[in-house]
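I hope you will forgive my troubling you with a question about protein structure. I am sending you one protein, given as its amino acid sequence and as whole-number tokens for its backbone shapes. Thank you for your consideration; the sequence and its tokens are set out here:
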Amino acid sequence: MKNIASILVFIFVFTFTIQAQKKRGYKQQPTINQQTSLKVKQMTLVLDLSDRQQQQVTPLLRAAIAFRQAAMEKRKEARKQKKRLSSDEIYAIKSQVLDNKISMKRSMKGILNETQFKTFKKMYTQRMKKKKGKEHRQRSTKK
């Protein structure tokens, strides 16, 4: 009886460790067009965009998503090469990101009416708060 119990415990522990060590595959990312379409539909639901507004917002979002994916690929390459960015490179990247945010905000202000723009700003600030919270949690767990 003791042998059977110990064998069952051993099998349970063995299976548990095997499951814990399985590598998770990377999720397939949707294409830029698919991401843009989903984002436009989401904004349409929240902001009640007209067809004309949807057509105007689509290229802006496509460009923003493409920029974000390109930056992510650069970071992956730098991480693979274990290369640290210089302060000038970091400054250039942060400056470009801020320029993109400013141009996006100005463009959205021109496309949306006042109530839609207020809702858009509210959504944006909530997303930034959530993102900063995640970054803070990640940094605190790394230490």
The helical segments are 2-21, 32-47, 51-80, 87-111, 114-142.
